[in-house]
Each structure stands twice: as structure tokens, then as C-alpha cells.
Amino acid sequence: MIARDAIFKRLREAGAEFETAADAFESTAGPGMSADDLLNEFKKRFLAVSGQYHFASEPDGIGPILSDILKDMKGQKAVAADSAMTLYPGLKDHLEDLGIMVVSPDPENARDAAAGISASELAVAYSGSLLVTSRTKGDLTASLLPPVHIALTPRTVLAAGIRELLLFLDKTGWPRGAALITGPSRTADIELSLVTGVHGPQEVHAVILDRV
Amino acid sequence: MSGRCEFDQDVCRALDNNFLQTALDRATQGFKNLRINAINDIPEFQTLRQKARDAKNRVLSDLPKYLSQLEAAVHDRGGKVIWAENGDQVTEYILALAREKGARTVVKGKSMTIEEIHLNPKMEQAGLEVFETDLGEYIIQLLGERPSHIIGPAIHKTKEEVGRLFQERLGISYTDIPAELTKAVRGELRNRFLNADMGITGANFAVAKTGTVVLLENEGNIRMSTTLPKVHVAVMGLEKVVADLEDLEYLLRVLPVSAAGQRTSSYVSFLTGPGRKDGVGPEEMHLIIMDGYRTKALADPVYRQVLRCLRCGSCLNFCPVYRRIGGHSYPWVYAGPIGIALTAAAQGPEAARDIASASTLCKACGEVCPVMIDLPGLVLETRRRLAQKGSLADQGLDWLSKGLATPFGFDLAERAAGLMFGAATDNDGRIRRGPDILKRFGQNRRMPEPVTPYHRAVNKGDDE
Predict the structure, then answer these.
(1) What is the DSSP letter of B435?
(2) Which residues in chain B have Cβ-Cβ distances shorter than 8 Å to A167?
(3) What's the gap in Å between the CA of B154 and the closest CA on chain A?
């Protein structure tokens, strides 16, 4: 408390005043975008950050998309978040049919899994981003530890911009942990060469579900 | 050896280092292009800059209010707030916490605030194993160097150097392929993340209203460091508080665009209080709010605007001087134009004497700053304050400028310069003879040979 009091005393004594005088502001990403605008903008931005985009016009469409992404993973492990199993109740059986073992999403199990499947709580069109949070079991690990992340994303969760994202987090009471994910994990730390899959996934797949 | 000589030598070493020149060119030009392309695609960017500036001005105008709000909000969510006057108090707290928890291994996210206080060596002395987990920081930690760029700490290293380093220290076979080197670090650090007792990060923003700590990154190492260990410690400068969500939006939109031309970084973590479930999330969250130089800077009506800085690194990329001399020529952890301003604000203008002269005043830094810090103005202010101290050299310049203002004096000076030049300079154009003040000015500069002035050459017949 000694430090706090001394710091606050100096802050008051500093008597700092700054002006705030910005021009009126209109965001290009904001309300007023149609459902098609939102989807098109999301797709454009998501592809621009090396995301892999899939669209399932019918609920049955999820299966073939997953089979295609996971076709070379027979005999390996995958992590499925609860949220993904809610969106696609056949997920566990489907993975097992592909010869993939489904493990519980705690970090010790997820550490050497080949793929992680989560849902997206929200998707941001402006930046092509996907939101996962600590609210549902497994979303944070499925989206971080395995080299391949698949996010089942209902079309209804598409939002325009960062403002809508923050309002959503606020309205839903700020989960302990939330991660906005924009493309694969990346670095340019060695001679500015872009490398993906540093600590997080090398591939991020958004599977848009037109109807749930 | 005086600071001046060290500075000149650092600069000469940097200029003579061909690899460094190429690396700096490649990195800064790369960052510049990414930023320019991204901004061309965001028509409202200039208004966003104003909004971001206002967002920072709002909290800096009433820090006691917003910091109290932040403290209360963090407590409400079960987190702990610790106030620290300086780096020593931060270190003391972290070491005591590590002892209390029986912690042995620490994973760290990249943080310029923590770079300011040299925490790592002190943790290591206390017997903790500390792993920097950002790839660039990991490289320079192995080398025992300091970062040379805010967002590209190891841009001054070649891939071959990194290859040999990893061969020696990680025991992998030699490769200079960046993807392979990155993969080796992924493998090396994966276990560290899972077994670490404590994760230590900085904080890009902390929202007063909600108590949320916001962290931006591209690799995923910060997500790991803040969710896998049981204890998360975030260290922030007290200026990082943000009033509300509206302000946060503007700041979140200008920072990654300015840093690397991204509409948002690969990962943005929003962390609100502790909570561990299914092995994920920390049991404890400690937010250390540090002063250091910040209240001192705030009390200075001119320098206080440095507290708006978001650490995007954009002013480095656009600075023609940084792009030649690199980060290690600057005296403190901060390089480039913001490095000059922060050093002067934190340690006084004297500490920035040499680097304050290392600016062409082209003003590009001020144009690109996402929070509109008047960087060229602060460089000039630093020079002004140093000049006011009135050195002999300054008085001499004063006398000289008066003399040169008359036609007779100017003509005389021109003729004198021609004569003296030959006497004072060596063949390489550097001044090595004559009065000290001249040598000091000229020994690291190549002087152009004086030519006969046009008017005198043309009027030669009339003149003589």
C-alpha cells in the first residue's frame, strides 16, 4: 500500500491534462452489413490470413468436409471440444469411423493430438477472426495445442467488427479467458521469413454452417 | 571512455556490418510495406488514429480514477493487484511469489516493460529456470543480447547464426531453414509450457471497467503462458489502463496495423480474472502495476505524451537513422524516435544527448505514430533543453551565426574554410587535426571537399 499511496500522490500532483478532439467517426465495418456482406467479408479476410474456408449448406455437409481435412490422420488422436459436439452430435462417432481416437481436451491429452475441433462463439468479418472462450470445455486447448484447428462456425455468429466483438464479450459477462484467433500461429522472427505453426496451429479451418 | 565515443563506435560498427545493413533494410522495408498496404484498405484510418490518441489522452488526464477502477474490477474477478514503484519492487514481488509457490520453471511472453527492468537475470540468480517463449526473444535470450527492434527482437541475426546457435544449444543437426528452426523451438518449448509453474507476461491494455488484461501476439506463446501454468503474473506500466470498450476498440484497431500491417494480430487474449478448469487457466492472476519513470514523465508538460506509446515499432521502421544504425546503437531498451523521446522523458535529456542528434527531422515518425505522438517535436525539445544548458560549443555557434549573417563575414568564412579544410582533413575526408571541437565533430563524418562558390567562379574577372 505504501507504493500505491506514493504513486497516486504523484499522479495527482502531475496535474496532467490532455485534449480529446477527434473528428466524427464512421467505421467501414459496422452495422448495416447484410448477412451476405458479412459472409463475403469474413471469407475474404479469413482467406487473406491463410485460413482455410469451408461452407456446409446443410447439416449433413459437415461430415464430408471433416473427412477431407482429417483423411491422413488415421491412427492419431484428436481433441473435440464440448461445443463442437453440441453443434455436430455425430462428431465422436465420425472421428472414430475415420480411425481417429478422440481424447479429452485437457492439455496433457491434447499435447500430441493431430487435430482439435472447436466451435466459434463469434466470427468477426472485419478481420476474418474466430472467437473461442473458456466457457465451454475444450475450446481453448483444441484451438491452440494441435497443429490443425477446425472451428465449426454457425453462420448466425458472424459479426461485423471489433466493436461488435467487445460488446458481445461484455453482454455475455466476460469469460475468464477469451481468444480471438486470426489465421494460423505465425512468426517472422528469423530474417523476416514467414513461418506458420510456431506454438499454435499451422492450419486453421473455418467450417461455416449455413443451417444448424 | 565517454558515452559519446561509445555511441560513435556502436554506430560505426553498425554501419560497417554488411549483414546488419541488409537485415535492417529487409525488416524495416517489409514492415513498412505491410503497414502501407493494410492502411490503404482502411479508409477511416486517420480518424482511427485521432480516436486512439483521444483514448490514451482520456486515461492520462485522470489516471487515479481509471487505475482505481481497474484495481476494483480486477479484485471483483478474483485477481490480485500489486503496485510497484520500480523494477526492484516488481522483481521482489515475483521472487517472493515464486518462493511461496515453490515455483521452479517460468515461461515468459515478450514484454518491453519487463525488458526495462532486467527481470530475467535476477530470476535466474534466484534459481528459477526462465524461458523466453517468443521465437525472437528465445534466440536473444540464448545469446544473452537485448532486443534490437520492438516487434522483431532478433532481426539483426542471420538464419545461419540462428542455425549454429540451435545446433550448439538445442543439440539439433544444423539447418538454416527458418521453418525447421521454428519447429525445433516448438518441440523444445512445448514441454516447458506444460510443466511451467508460472507464466509471466506484459499487458498491451487493461480495461478499467471490466478488469480485463488484453494481450496481442502472433505465435501462440502468450496464450500458452497465460493458460497452462497455475500462476499468471502480468506486469504493466500504469499508462496501459484503458477507460472502456469503445476506447479499446480504437486502440485494438490501430496497434496491429501499425506494427505489422495486420487488421488484428493472430491472437488477441482477453483475460478477466483467474479460474482453472480441466487443466486450463491459472488458479491465480497477479497484475503488477508499475511506475518506473511514468509519473515523472506525466509531470512534464511536453514529454508526457510519450505515455501514449503503444510499442508498435512503426516509428523505427520509418526512421532513416534507425534503418541504418539498428537498435543496439541506442542507449536504452527502446530504439528509434520513440527511444529518443522515452529515454529523455525517463532518464532526463542528458541521457539522450547523443541519440537526440541522431535524427534527420524528416518527421516520418510523427506521421506514422498510431497515437499521434509529436516525435519530431520531442527530439527538438530534447535538443533545446540540452542547448539551454549552455556548453562552450553552443556559445561558439552563437558567435559564429552572428558573424556569418554579414556579407563580409560570410565571404571571409568561405575563404577560410577552403584553406583550413586541406590542413585539417585526411585523405578520407575525416577531420583528424585542429581544435578538439572540430575533431569531435569531424572524425566520424566524411566531409565534402569545398568547391569554389559559383558567384566567385563566374565573377572571377571582376573580382581579382
Answers:
(1) -
(2) 245
(3) 6
pLDDT in tens, B109-148: 999 999 999 999 999 999 999 999 999 999 999 999 989 9
Gap from B158 CA to chain A (nearest CA, Å):
6
Inform me whether the C-beta atom of residue A12 falls under 8 Å from chain B C-beta atoms. Answer: yes
Helix (H) or strand (E) holding B61: helix B45-61
Alpha-carbon distance of B299 to B295, in angstroms, equals: 6
The amino acid present at A103, given as its one-letter code, is V
Grid coordinates belonging to B152 = 522483431
Q: Are β-strands A195-196 and A186-187 bridged in parallel, bridged antiparallel, or unpaired?
A: antiparallel
A47 by Cβ neighbours in 10 Å (0-12 / 13-18 / 19+) ranks as middle
| Contact between residue A162 and residue B252 where contact means Cβ atoms under 8 Å apart | yes
Is residue B337 within 8 A of residue B323, CB to CB? The reply is no
Tens digits of residue pLDDT in B249-298: 999 999 999 999 999 999 999 999 999 999 999 999 999 999 999 999 99
CB B234 within 8 A of CB B285: yes
Residues of B in contact with A106 (CB under 8 A): 278-280
> In A53-203, where does DSSP find H-type helix?
62-69, 82-87, 91-97, 107-110, 139-142, 162-171
B162: amino acid identity, one letter: V
pLDDT confidence band for B429 (50 / 70 / 90): confident
CB of B339 closer than 8 Å to CB of B332: yes
**Residue B11: which H helix or E strand, with range?**
helix B3-16
Distance of residue A147 Cα from the nearest chain B Cα, in angstroms: 11
pTM of the model: 0.91
Question: Which value does ipTM take for this structure?
Answer: 0.97
The Cα-based distances of B269 to A149, B55, B216, B288 in angstroms read: 17, 20, 7, 18
Q: For residues A152 and B338, give the distance between their C-alpha atoms in angstroms, rounded to a whole number.
A: 43
Q: Which residues of B408-422 are buried (b: 16+ CB within 10 A; e: fewer)?
A: eeeeeeeeeeeebee
Phi, psi dihedral angles at B445 (to 5 degrees)? -120, 145
Whether residue A180 contacts residue A129, with contact meaning beta carbons closer than 8 Å, is answered with yes
Answer left, alpha or beta for residue A50, where phi above 0 means left and psi between -120 and 50 means alpha: left
Sign of CA dihedral B269, B272, B277, B280: positive
What is the DSSP pairing of strand A77-80 with strand A122-124?
unpaired
**Checking DSSP bridges between strand B231-237 and strand B284-290, what pairing results, if any?**
parallel
Of A4, A18, A49, the CB nearest to B57: A18
- H-helix or E-strand spanning residue B248: helix B245-260
Query: What Cα–Cα distance (Å) separates residue B350 from each residue in B26, B325, B345, B346, B389?
Result: 33, 20, 10, 11, 10
* DSSP conformational letter for B304: G
Label each residue of A134-160 as H, E or C: CCCCCHHHHCCCCCEEEEEEEHHHEEC
